[in-house]
Each structure stands twice: as structure tokens, then as C-alpha cells.
Write a structure and sequence with these properties.
The structure holds two protein chains of two kinds. Chain A is built from no helices and eleven strands. Chain A is globular, with a radius of gyration of 13 Å. By secondary structure, chain B is an all-beta fold. The mean pLDDT of chain B is about 90. The chains are: A mainly beta, B mainly beta.
Chain lengths: ~110, ~110
């Protein structure tokens, strides 16, 4: 079974802090994704990566950056955290070949910015 | 652009009732379709998928049929259990454009009463 592990289940930070969310997958997947999940809005894509050191902006990249130095690890960075970034963050991975591959999700990180 | 529309919840049913959660989509190409389930405090898990027209995905008593003519992928279960209480997401993946983005519906919360 694919395992996607997010480093923290719950995180509390202060406004202006630089925040790192880490995600690791163990199935050699090429694609990795970061979403945020908010009530009534579903999942919104922040960034995705289809290879090491490659990244593409999703629908809401403002205020975020990402890093993919190794194939198994995809980090989300909040450069200067703000209260409107309080949310549930979900990491996912999938195989590259074809759009018929499902995504595999981590358990999420519930981030609160005070 | 591509989109997924799900019926709004919450849906409240008694145990052993029949479940239908509607999902319709718009896509420029030939998408693959997915249903994911999210239990409280967890990430999303793949429930079932269908990759071409008339395919039926099934798992754990849930079924959905890819209907190209009505652009629909409705989720059904003949007899729900309390343990099915969760949020259900319909999603599509369309690789026609050359990227492998996934589009999610906003989710439908199901509550099953004993």
C-alpha cells in the first residue's frame, strides 16, 4: 500500500512566521501535490510537482512556495504566515503515467495561524 | 475549464437505507472519474474509479457508472451503515491537456443514523 506521510497532524504558528509542512511518499511516485481544504470550498490546489526540482502553480499559489529536492519529499512553505492561511493542508501523490491514476493522500495537517 | 458538481449535503439517512450522491462533470477531453471518501480527522481515500465510458467502479458495496451521455458519475449504495458516515468527494482527472491535474467537487457529507 502507498503511504503518504505528513510530518504533523496539528500545528499552531504565529503571523509572520515562516512555516514548513513536510510530506513524504514511499511508492516512487513522480507526481506530488499540495492542497488546502476549507469548509464549503472543497480541495484547492496550491502547487504540484511532476519531477524532482520541477514545480507548477496550482489555483491558489499566492503566499506559498514549494521545494522538491528528492523524489519522495515535497515541502510546502508559507513564507510569512497570515491568519487567512489557517486551514487543513493535504498532500497527495500519484504515478505520472496517464490521468487514470488515482491520487494517494496523507492524513492532513491542521494548521492554525494566530 | 473542467469542473465537477456534487449535490450539496448534508445527506442524513437511516441505517440500511439506499444512498445516491449525484455527481456531474464537464471536461474537454476524456477524463477518468473517481470517488474519494474522507472519514473524520483523516485524509482522502480512493473509494472507486472508472476510466472510460460505461465502466462501473465498485468497492465496499458502493458503485458508480461512468455515463458519458449524461456526463454523470453518481455514487450509490444499496444499504448504508453507520460506519459509512463520512464526506464523499467526486473527482476527475483529464490528461488531454498534457497535465495531470485533478478536479474535485466540494464534497457531500453523509450522516447515517442507527
Amino acid at each position: 500500500d502507498v503511504k503518504v506521510t505528513q510530518s504533523s497532524r496539528y500545528l499552531v504558528k504565529r503571523t509572520g512566521e515562516k512555516v514548513f509542512l513536510e510530506c513524504v511518499q514511499d511508492m516512487d511516485h513522480e507526481n506530488m501535490f499540495w492542497y488546502r481544504q476549507d469548509p464549503g470550498l472543497g480541495l484547492r490546489l496550491i502547487y504540484f510537482s511532476y519531477d524532482v526540482k520541477m514545480k507548477e502553480k496550482g489555483d491558489i499559489p499566492e503566499g506559498y512556495s514549494v521545494s522538491r529536492e528528492k523524489k519522495e519529499r515535497f515541502s510546502l512553505i508559507l513564507e510569512s504566515a497570515s491568519t487567512n492561511q489557517t486551514s487543513m493542508y493535504l498532500c497527495a501523490s500519484s504515478l505520472l503515467q496517464g490521468g487514470n491514476q488515482p491520487q494517494h493522500f496523507g492524513d492532513g495537517t491542521r494548521l492554525s495561524i494566530l | 475549464g473542467d469542473s465537477v458538481t456534487q449535490m450539496e449535503g448534508p445527506v442524513t439517512l437511516s441505517e440500511e437505507a439506499f444512498l445516491t450522491i449525484n455527481c456531474t462533470y464537464t471536461a474537454t477531453g476524456y477524463p477518468s472519474l473517481f470517488w474519494y471518501v474522507q472519514y473524520p480527522g483523516e485524509g482522502l481515500q480512493l473509494l472507486l474509479k472508472a476510466t472510460k465510458a460505461d465502466d462501473k467502479g465498485s468497492n465496499k458495496g458502493f458503485e458508480a457508472t461512468y455515463r458519458k451521455e449524461t456526463t454523470s458519475f453518481h455514487l450509490e449504495k444499496g444499504s448504508v451503515q453507520v460506519s459509512d458516515s463520512a464526506v464523499y468527494f467526486c473527482a476527475l482527472s483529464d490528461s488531454t491537456s498534457g497535465t495531470y491535474k485533478y478536479i474535485f467537487g466540494t464534497g457531500t457529507r453523509l450522516k447515517v443514523l442507527a
